[in-house]
Amino acid sequence: TELRQRLNRQRGPLGLRLINALTSAIEDDMIAAGEALPPEREFAEELGVSRSTLRQCLEQLAEDGLIETRRGAGHFVARRILKPVTRLTGFTDDMVSRGIQPVSKILEKTIMPVPPDTAFRTALPLGTPVFVLVRLRLAGDEILAYERSIVPVTSVGEDYDGTGSLYGRMDKHGGRPKRILQSMRAVEAGPEIAEHLKVKPSTAVLMIRRIGYGAHGVAVEDAISWYRGDRYDYVAEING
Ligand code: 16G
């Protein structure tokens, strides 16, 4: 098979060759995202390696986020989300447009006077009532991000309970952001973020800050998110 040829083209110890061969097969889409790998015994035979060598290699690939192991169901190539940086969308929009069921777990929702650091970033007057919403964002049962959004209460209404799409809710009140400033940075997940995202501490994650401005240039969102680095590719078209 082609996979076996890839394996034979590599140099070095067998375990490493196997990891490289499978990694390149996944990266070249030879094995597509979401696809199941053959059952271990069959797969080991196809590759001409022992089951224990294969298993070690699969463990490594799972740790690197390239495959997912689901108990009782086997190994699957992980799905990555390609997100264009050039379109202003929210999490729910992104998921729905991909045919994925967005799920959110609300970890905190509070109304309070705007925290000083947010006031400085957004120029909202001190004392402005804001809604602080901390959510875990999932695709089905898969955790993708941990996110804290701060929005003026006037943008969502006092009776907002934090469920559903925040941007959808804003559309019906003050309006969702029309323009955003966003920065993305690679950081190591600290213990708290690692716990929320269910990754090992020190795993690389994307920390994204977003400040959204409404129709009149007034800030309507101050958000900070940690997206799983093994699930997200931010892509941009850049013209020279
Ligand atoms: C995205 C935004 C976040 C916004 C949320 C609204 C990034 C990095 N962050 O996650 O700022 O609050 O979408 O999503 O893109 P919702 O409409 O599904 O609640």
Uncertain segments of ≥5 residues (pLDDT<50)?
none
Question: What is the global morphology?
Answer: elongated
Quickly count the domains: 2
Determine the fraction of residues in helical runs and give it as a percent range: 25-40%
Task: List bound small molecules.
Answer: 2-acetamido-2-deoxy-6-O-phosphono-alpha-D-glucopyranose
Distance between the termini: 42 Å
Percentage of residues in strands: 25-35%
Q: What is the element string, with H for helices and E for strands?
A: HHHHEEEHEHEEHHEHEEE
Number of E-state strands:
10
Average per-residue pLDDT, rounded, comes to: 92
Question: Keywords for this structure?
Answer:
Tscrpt_reg_HTH_GntR, 6-stranded antiparallel sheet, 240 residues, 31% helix, Chorismate_lyase_/UTRA_dom_sf, Arc Repressor Mutant, subunit A, GntR family transcriptional regulator, alpha+beta, 2 domains, single chain, binds 2-acetamido-2-deoxy-6-O-phosphono-alpha-D-glucopyranose, two-stranded antiparallel ribbon, Chorismate lyase, 9 helices
What does it look like?
- The chain is an alpha+beta fold.
- The protein has two domains: 2-77, Winged helix-like DNA-binding domain superfamily/Winged helix DNA-binding domain (Arc Repressor Mutant, subunit A, Orthogonal Bundle), CATH 1.10.10; 81-235, Chorismate lyase, CATH 3.40.1410.10.
- It is 31% helix and 33% strand.
- It has nine helices and ten strands.
- The strands form three sheets. It has a six-stranded antiparallel beta sheet with strand order 4-5-6-9-8-7. A two-stranded antiparallel ribbon has the order 1-2. A two-stranded parallel sheet has the order 3-10.
- Helix 1 packs across helix 2 and helix 2 crosses helix 4 (51-63).
- The longest helix is centred in the first third of the chain and has 14 residues, at 14-27.
- It is elongated and about 65 Å long.
- The protein starts with a helix and ends in a 5-residue tail after the last strand.
- 25% of the residues are buried.
- The model has no long low-confidence stretch (mean pLDDT 92).
- The structure holds 2-acetamido-2-deoxy-6-O-phosphono-alpha-D-glucopyranose (16G).
- Residues 90-92, 147, 149, 165-168, 208, 210, 221, 223, 225 line the site of 2-acetamido-2-deoxy-6-O-phosphono-alpha-D-glucopyranose.
- This is GntR family transcriptional regulator.
- Residues 12-80 form the HTH gntR-type domain.
- InterPro entries: Bact_HTH_transcr_reg (IPR050679), Chorismate_lyase_/UTRA_dom_sf (IPR028978), Tscrpt_reg_HTH_GntR (IPR000524), UTRA (IPR011663), WH-like_DNA-bd_sf (IPR036388), WH_DNA-bd_sf (IPR036390).
- Keywords: DNA-binding, Transcription, Transcription regulation.
- It holds the Pfam family UTRA.
